[in-house]
Design goal:
Helix content: over 70%
Number of domains: 1
Radius of gyration: 25 Å
Number of strands: 2
Order of helices and strands: HHEHHHHHHHHE
Shape: globular
Distance between the termini: 53 Å
């Protein structure tokens, strides 16, 4: 065998040895590939700041919705039409975006929570469905949206939200859950006799139970996320009503437009000072 043949066999043997017994030192020195946009979801990472902004956004949804429907005296139907149109526009914009944009995402969340406020008020008060009937109907809608999402994509995790189909189910579920939360908050505060402060304490305590379950119970974290997401809405609804309802009704009688402006400013400061990153994506079938 010539020298070229011997050299070829030698190098082939080295390649096989390297493949079967990789050098751990070489592995540790290999740089990790950066996350690509396709490896990231179009929703924020679920952190403490996410929940702080979410509660502020739901409270803004209550005060903002009441500002348009009550303070501006446009009524629940007209206010629902305005906020529903804004919600559709923001969802289309959000779905057309190539990656996660914090300001666009939270603008869409605020649009969904203000639309949820006026839709729940219109159904409960103008249509006469009542708080129990409205809450049960909306609970069925949330469950149906989650079931359809899981049937279509095999998961309801927010980490799967990076395709148009996943985004559609995500925002559909979000809208139903925001509306359900409004109905639950009004039901607890009014029909339940808890008042706005009492309702806020009850829903705040319920959220603490969810946090405890997250850390110390063997319960699906995906399920706990959606439970917490729904509960933040009635918490925000009762806090918003506590701020802007008349003193005779158990509120503090703050100006609705002023309260809305303060909440919007707080959210803006949070987004500027505490930048959010996109959640890492998970694969769906």
């Amino acid at each position: 065998m010539g020298s070229n043949g011997i050299s070829g066999v030698y190098h082939c043997t080295l390649r096989n040895k390297a493949a079967n017994h990789p050098d751990p030192h070489l592995e540790t020195q290999m740089p990790t590939a950066p996350k690509t946009e396709n490896a990231l979801a179009k929703v924020p990472e679920i952190t403490l700041i996410f929940w702080i902004i979410k509660i502020a956004a739901t409270t803004l949804g209550e005060t903002g919705g009441d500002t348009v429907s009550m303070t501006m005296n446009l009524g629940y139907l007209a206010a629902t039409g305005i906020f529903a149109a804004l919600l559709v526009l923001f969802v289309i914009w959000q779905m057309a975006a190539k990656k996660f944009h914090p300001f666009l995402y939270w603008a869409t969340i605020i649009a969904s929570t203000t639309a949820g406020t006026t839709m729940a008020d219109f159904a409960d008060r103008s249509l006469g469905i009542g708080y129990p009937g409205g809450a049960l109907l909306l609970l069925a809608c949330v469950a149906g949206a989650l079931a359809a999402w899981h049937f279509a994509l095999g998961t309801i995790s927010v980490r799967s939200v990076r395709t148009p189909r996943a985004e559609f189910f995500y925002w559909l579920t979000i809208t139903f859950s925001q509306t359900l939360g409004t109905a639950l908050g009004d039901w607890a505060a009014d029909t339940g006799g808890l008042g706005f402060g009492g309702g806020a304490l009850v829903f705040g305590a319920a959220l603490l139970v969810v946090v405890a379950a997250y850390y110390w119970a063997r319960v699906s974290h995906v399920l706990l996320f959606w439970v917490a997401f729904i509960l933040t809405r009635p918490l925000g609804a009762t806090l918003g009503d506590l701020f802007d309802k008349p003193v005779a009704e158990g509120g503090l009688a703050f100006s609705r437009p002023l309260a809305s402006a303060v909440l919007a400013g707080f959210i803006l400061i949070c987004l500027l000072v505490l930048p959010q990153r996109a959640a890492e994506s998970e694969t769906t079938h």
